[in-house]
TrEMBL record:
Lineage: Bacteria, Pseudomonadati, Bacteroidota, Flavobacteriia, Flavobacteriales
Residue span(s) of domain GtrA/DPMS transmembrane: 14-151
GO cellular component: membrane
Keyword annotations of the record: Membrane, Transmembrane, Transmembrane helix
Localization per Swiss-Prot or TrEMBL: Membrane
Protein known as: GtrA-like protein
InterPro entries: GtrA_DPMS_TM (IPR007267)
GO terms classed as biological process: polysaccharide biosynthetic process
Annotated organism of origin: Chryseobacterium taklimakanense
Chief site of localization: membrane
Pfam families registered for this protein in UniProt: GtrA_DPMS_TM
Highest taxon above the source species: Bacteria
Record has Membrane as a keyword: yes
Coiled-coil region(s): none
Amino acid sequence: MKQLLLSQKQVLFFVLAGAMSAVIEVGTFKFFSVQLPPIFAWEKNLYGVHFPLSNILSTSCGIISNYFFSIWFVFERGKHSKRREFAYFIAISAISTVLSLMFFQIFYSSAFRNEYFDLGFFVFSPEMLSKIAAIVLVSVLNYSVKKRIIFSG
């Protein structure tokens, strides 16, 4: 078991960094999805897009925190300069943001439409379940792309 963990150390650290970023992203999404609708009436449904500003702002928080977690704990610096590395990271993350928003809409409109998940001490709403599912799906893609393109040595 110890040998397996050591051989997959980078994947394990990526999962931990991703989990920390996901907590930041989900937490800020919860905050924005509660605070923004009273200010912006269109936030709950903008031409069929649910919580667009909350998604964009929370995903941005997750992306920035993930960049720092990635360079501190997961990947070694690649062949690119810091400026280019950050630009590539942001470009790939922008694409991931669009994918995450699309997956959120799909999950929110169909898979978790009226689903609530009750843990006894906390209830996950359809918005939260959709956000978490979208994060998990996009994370798999992010690891392989970031490892091969940004942080390749």
